[in-house]
Amino acid sequence: MYLNRLANQVKDLSGQGRFSEALALQIEILNETKRKRTLQDFKKAAWLAWNAGDFEPCLVLLRDALPLASESERSNLKENIAACLSRMQRHEEARAACLELLEEGHKGINLYDVLTSACGALRRFEEVRTYGNLTLEWKDRQADTPGLPLPGRRPVYSPQGHNVITFSLWGNNPRYLRGAVRNALLVQDVYPGWRVRFYLDTSVPQDVVGLLRELKSELRFQPHHGHPFEGLAWRFQVLDDPEVDFFLVRDCDSVLSSLEFLAVSQWLASDRWFHIMRCWPSHTDLILAGMWGGAQGALPGVPARFPQFLQTSPRVPTNLLDQEFLRACVWPTVKQSSLIHDRFFTAFGALPFPGTELMPPHFHVGVNECAVRNQYQELVLRPYARVCPSLRLPV
């Protein structure tokens, strides 16, 4: 009875996205069942640790699970171990683990993903190109459903149109709250005439909501149905907004920049319906959920498919679920008419990323500003943080 109660609490907490709390209870379950631990118990705990960003315990849990796994399950666990090592900045070990799996005859998307990212951190750029292109080609073959027919000629872009940059926002993590405010402040400097639109729920602190309103952001409040990652796709609702002419989909923690504007401007001047950007070795998805855009009218009804995708996806859900949805349900249409800018890979006729020579060290389009330019962000946001406590970083 006690273990059942704990298991139900784990389920409830993980459904709310409270992964660290759920992990503590799952570890308690493991400690209570030392004589009859199952592979599933360890995998659940490792999944919670991964989503909580606690990669050290995740690594320990995955290694502890290895003796309980079959041969086929062991290769999957080893891939996840390599991914943990990469997230922990142990890139040489991650690369070695991946190469060992390749020598054993294993292939697959996750393996190539991790290997590309690890090689990027090690500045092995020839390997980055090889494995990154392999990853993208595998993902394209996996997304083998037919795309929607395109409406015809793409509309001509007008700066005077209703053009929108969309974000999803929930919770009180300063990383995303600060990024949201930065983007609201920057939009008219980077994209004159464009509006920012936040799809958010009531978990966002009221002081931040008030500030975003003062900054003339469009706010669209969303119901929350209990899935920890459902908010990832709120921003895709712009695809069904007939009042919008052109849209860009972005991540809150990634701040708009003149360097991405160079790429977007080339796309807007073209006749392609969609735009895709990849600017870092870890950008090995067909469509990065926060680095794409399009002209309105080519993807009707797509946002309504996400709830079903949540229920039927065979993969264990992580914060990459939105990109898996885009791969399965959006890429087959988008690839028919897309301009792709890619700094490292050449798959699908990608063009070189413009302005690469202007990018400062450690910068790329899509970078988390709170992590990479924390002091600069603090300086810019200091006046706002005085009146908006939720923007303050923990001491």
Uncertain residue ranges: none
Q: Main β-sheet, in a few words?
A: 8 strands, mixed
Distance between the termini: 41 Å
The count of strands amounts to 8
- Rg, please? 21 Å
Helix content estimate: 40-55%
Content-based structural category: alpha/beta
Count, helices: 15
Query: H/E order of the elements?
Result: HHHHHHHHEHEHEEHEEHHEEHH
Major beta sheet, strand line-up: 3-2-1-4-6-5-7-8
Strand content: 5-15%
What shape does the CA trace take?
globular
Multimeric organization: single chain
Mean pLDDT: 92
Spell out the key features of this protein.
alpha/beta; 48% helix; 15 helices; 395 residues; eight-stranded mixed β-sheet; 10% strand; single chain
Structure overview:
The chain is 48% helix and 10% strand. It is of the alpha/beta class. Helix 1 (2-15) runs antiparallel to helix 2, helix 4 (55-65) runs antiparallel to helix 5 and helix 6 (91-103) runs antiparallel to helix 7. The protein is globular. The two termini are 41 Å apart. The model has no long low-confidence stretch (mean pLDDT 92).
Quick synopsis:
With 395 residues, the protein is an alpha/beta fold. It has 15 helices and eight strands.
